[in-house]
Amino acid sequence: MTTLSGDMNVLDVRVGKVATAATLQIVLATTAGKLLSNGADYMGSEAKNVTKFIKESRPSVGDVVHLPMPGRAKVCAIIVAETQTEATLEALGEKITKLANSKDYTAVTLVIETFGLNADVVAAKLTYGMQFATNALSMKSDAKQDVLKKVYLYGEELTSNSAAATAAIEDATHNAMGSILMRTLIQLPPNVLGTRQLLAVAQGLKKYNKDVKVSVKVVKDGMNFGAMAAVGRVSNQDSLLIEIRYEGDANAPLTALVGKGLVFDTGGINLKSNGGTGMKGDMGGSAMVLGTMFSAILRKEKVNLIGVIGAVCNDIGPDAYRPDEVLTARNGTTIEVTNTDAEGRLVLADCLSYTEEKYSPVRMFSFATLTGAAVVAHGRRAPVFSDDDTFAADLVDSANAAGDMVAHVIMDDYLKPSLNSSIADTRNTSTGRMCGHTTAAIFLNKFVAKTPYMHVDIAGASDINGPGGGAFGVPMMLRYLTTYARG
Ligand code: BES
Ligand code: MG
Ligand code: ZN
Q1: Average pLDDT for residues 257-285, to the nearest whole number?
Q2: For 180-484, CATH number?
């Protein structure tokens, strides 16, 4: 499958080309037929008739009105609100790709202006949306390839800022590739994407940049990864600790990205009541690591990254780890297993202490589809947890700037005793029902000794039924890394 190697269909997006090469020309108009952007100029003497035609067809916002324009290529108007924002421009970009692919147009021209935004921002948002709508995963037997290949952004303000717009298009394209990779990985079914296939994806990153190194350990009982090994004990898939190193600038402060990579989560002996449908996406955290690193690598970003993924399958069977077991984690902490369905935190526990000890990063993130409580409490907004308020504020700012939804949640002291165990150092789940997303974060913090640490629970944010189809947070992380983690 091409998606596994990251070989994606990439649109060729350009600024300031004359429209005649396109098979579909798009202008923007209001429901009243008013031509926005440079649409009236573009239509020239036909503008009046076009306005009348659109108005008479009584369109709603979002409609596509095909215009009868003899002597021209196919022309249509997309009906939009008079003002546009970064978010609506991104959505417009997605709409254009879907429209072109559904109608077999290989090239489109979009007549566009800046709506009071900077030209590079407009180019970036449109491009991200257009690219993101490509490479949709379908395993239907009659699935169709993307046909759209070229997009021309045509308009005065973009042409006069073409250097900045072109650079923004390139960055946005690279950013979208990371999000597409994340979406694809989350959507792939568990019989296609096992732990070895996740490793293959990581190894695939090497071909994009010589500064990428990938290594792997097969984690088994007796290797001192007692928490992670227990979760994968029964599975016939190897539990893999995957390390991806990207030294875009060896002198930049090292940032660690740790991801939960549960290729499937049945719940284990505490079996999920629905058997686990939807849990193919339980490697979303590792997909976010891979997506972020893929984009950073494509951008040749001057950052220094270590990605660590715990790729495991939480399965059932006679040798499955059991409730009541006491495990010894890599850092010596003993853990009473109170629920085998709280497996992600066990995998992350060993990955976090390993990453901190081996690499001494200046900061460390974990990304994980960790708790149903995060979904109940915050929906599609991802709760983020850190005792370092500056770190948290910087991440929240990055998320806001990138259009990803997060909320900084406090790990209140009163919750801490709920993890106390009578037999071991800690339980893996709290007693009581309060704040399960927060008690999970408190648990993870027991495995980080001194590094500024940020946990991001993406259980709700990376839901495949959400607007990103599973993709979340790659734009936020790129914004964070380019703002705070460059050399
Ligand atoms: N992978 C799940 C969390 C999850 C739930 C992700 C819904 C996406 C959607 C995780 O491993 C899990 O099962 N968590 C348990 C923890 C509980 C046993 C304390 C949960 O949230 O129910
Ligand atoms: Mg679970
Ligand atoms: Zn899980």
Answers
A1: 97
A2: 3.40.630.10
Mean pLDDT for the stretch of residues 464-469? 96
For residue 327, the CA-to-ligand 1 centroid distance in Å is 20
Residue range 412-463, pLDDT digits in tens: 999 999 999 999 999 999 999 999 999 999 999 999 999 999 999 999 999 9
Comparing C-alpha atoms, which of 460, 459, 454 is closest to residue 481? 454
The best mutation among 343, 370, 426, 457 to test binding of ligand 1, ranked by most ligand atoms within 8 Å of the C-beta, falls on 370
Structure tokens at 363: 């900061």
Residue closest via CA to ligand 1's atom 22 equals 372
Q: Give the distance (Å) from ligand 2 centre to CA of residue 339.
A: 9
Q: What residues pair up with 254 in beta bridges, in sequence order?
A: 304
Confidence of residue 1 (pLDDT cuts 50, 70, 90): very low
Query: Is the domain covering 2-158 a CATH 3.40.50.80 domain?
Result: no
* Location of each CATH 3.40.630.10 domain in the chain: 180-484
pLDDT value for 293:
98
Stated pTM of the model:
0.97
Measured from CB, residues less than 6 Å from any atom of ligand 1 are 265, 282, 339, 341-344, 369-373, 375, 429, 436, 459
For atom 17 of ligand 1, which residue has the closest CA?
Answer: 342
In this predicted structure, what is the pLDDT of residue 70?
Answer: 75
